[in-house]
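Standup notes
- HV: blocked on the assembly model, inputs below
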Amino acid sequence: MTPANHRPELQILESQECRSLLEHAPIGRLAIVSDGRPLIFPVNYIVDGESIVFRTADGSKLDAALRGEAAAMQVDSLDHGARTGESVLVVGHLHEVTNEDELLRIESLGVQPWASGHKPHVARLDIEKITGRSIMRTSRSEFFIG
Amino acid sequence: MTPANHRPELQILESQECRSLLEHAPIGRLAIVSDGRPLIFPVNYIVDGESIVFRTADGSKLDAALRGEAAAMQVDSLDHGARTGESVLVVGHLHEVTNEDELLRIESLGVQPWASGHKPHVARLDIEKITGRSIMRTSRSEFFIG
């Protein structure tokens, strides 16, 4: 049995590590507040300078963007075999991107509409704060973040 | 090139499918609201009847539980190769579990403290609503949920 003080320590990630994970994660989870309650949506996104952009249709994500509300995006990289991983959290505010030149530029970055019959919107989450922690799982039933 | 109308449809999961994913996902992402802003934390958890239980130390998750605040837990199962997956969202309210008998029972379910030197708390998220959708990724740069 491993003594408690030999268990791996939780660690805070450096800014560059956070940024790297954010840029390479295949998917993120976006949280918004709707009627005072948090909601979470998995979204694909791209990092565009100091913000995250993603497409969205009408709905609560767009509503939040139109109101410029606070939101959070969490991404992680987990190794279930090794029981280790990292998690990064971005907090900021959402906005809809409506400028045509800006939309064309974002299109060129690879955020495509999800179906040609739809006309989804582009939302931007400003990266106001980015933090990250290592995650350690110390037994089969445990998986913790600092 | 695949015509747009041949792209996979987004689908709503049946209640039993949602429940199964929730019970078998290795980790979930918990969203709470702190000072009006959403925050997301990866947590391990277990499903205990009509609620989700997890351990937490002092901090914003415990604060939210002490106030009985609304929270959300999202879990997913993604196949990056096949570009398909499912995502389930639970919404409800958080509470701290303080009853000794209840804590002992929950301990026996396998939610252990993450370090013996700590005395973390147990929080419960009542499953007030559970919904799920299929996720389809239609190109390398796309990953969408309905």
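- HV (later): unblocked. Chain B is about 20% helix and 45% strand. The longest helix of chain B spans residues 15-24.
- Next: hand off to the docking folks.
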